[in-house]
Amino acid sequence: KQEVTQIPAALSVPEGENLVLNCSFTDSAIYNLQWFRQDPGKGLTSLLLIQSSQREQTSGRLNASLDKSSGRNTLYIAASQPGDSATYLCAVKAAGNKLTFGGGTRVLVKP
Amino acid sequence: DTGVSQNPRHKITKRGQNVTFRCDPISEHNRLYWYRQTLGQGPEFLTYFQNEAQLEKSRLLSDRFSAERPKGSFSTLEIQRTEQGDSAMYLCASSLSGQGGTNEKLFFGSGTQLSVL
Q1: How far apart are CA B32 and CA B23, in angstroms?
Q2: How far apart are CA B45 and CA B58, in angstroms?
Q3: How many helices (H) and strands (E) does chain A have?
Q4: Helix (H, G, I), strand (E, B), or coil: what is residue B84?
Q5: pLDDT by position in tens, chain A (length 111)
Q6: Are B38 and B115 in contact (CB under 8 A)?
Q7: Chain-chain contact of A97 with B56 (C-beta, under 8 angstroms)
Q8: Is B111 in Cβ contact with A49 (below 8 Å)?
Q9: Which candidate from A4, A53, A98 shows the least CB-CB separation from B102?
Q10: d(Cα A46, Cα B106) in Å, to the nearest integer?
Q11: With contact defined as beta carbons under 8 Å apart, do B23 and B4 qualify?
C-alpha cells in the first residue's frame, strides 16, 4: 500500500528565505507526482506535476526534483513571500488512477 | 467559470439526516473523483468515475455512501443517516484520461464542508 509522508509538518520562515518541502513515498512504481496548495477552508490548487520519467520540473519560483528510486521528492520555493503562506500537499499517482496524499506542510512566511 | 464547481459550499445537518452534494467537472473531462479531507490531514480517496461508470470505491465508502454520475457529466455524492464522524470537507476533482497515465493532472473544486451536529 502506498504511503506518502511530508516533512516538516509545519514551517515558519522570514520573507525572502527559500522554502524546502520534502515528500517521500514508499512504492516507487508511480506514474507522476503532483504538488498542490491549499488555503484555509478552500479546495486544492495544482502547482506542479512531475512525471515519473522526469527528474525536475520548474514553474516560476517553484522547482520540484524527483528521485523515484529512493522515493523522494522535494519542492523548492525561491524568495518566499507572505502570499506563499498556505498548506502544501504532495500526492502520488500509481496504478488504479487515484492520488495518494501526504499530510501536508503548513507554511507561514513572516513579513 | 470553467473550473470544477461544487455545491453547496457548506452544509450543516443533524445526525441521522441524509445529505447530497453535487459536483460539476470541467466540461471536457471524462474522469471524476471524490475525496474526503478531515482537519489537518491530506485528502483520502473515496471513489472515481470514468464517464458514467464507477470504476473504484474505497473501503472508506460505507454502504451509507453512494455516488452517481448518470450522464457522464455532473456527479452527486449522497450520505444517508449521517453520523458525527462524517463531518469533513468533501472534495471533487476531474481530469482528462486521454493525457496518458503519467501526465494526467487532477483539478479540484473548492469542496463542500459538512458539519454533522
Answers
A1: 9
A2: 7
A3: 0, 11
A4: helix
A5: 899 999 999 999 999 999 999 999 999 899 899 999 999 888 999 999 999 999 999 999 999 999 999 999 999 999 999 999 999 999 999 877 789 999 999 999 999
A6: no
A7: yes
A8: no
A9: A53
A10: 8
A11: yes
CB count, 10 Å around CB of B38?
12
Cell of B52: 458514467
User: Is the peptide bond between B8 and the residue preceding it cis, with omega within 30 degrees of 0?
Assistant: yes
Residues 60-89 of chain B with CB under 8 A from chain A are none
Helix (H) or strand (E) run with residue B89 in it: strand B88-95
- Contact check, Cβ <8 Å, B108/A98: no
C-alpha span between B6 and B91 (Å, rounded): 8
- Residues of chain A contacting residue B54, judged by C-beta atoms under 8 Å apart: none
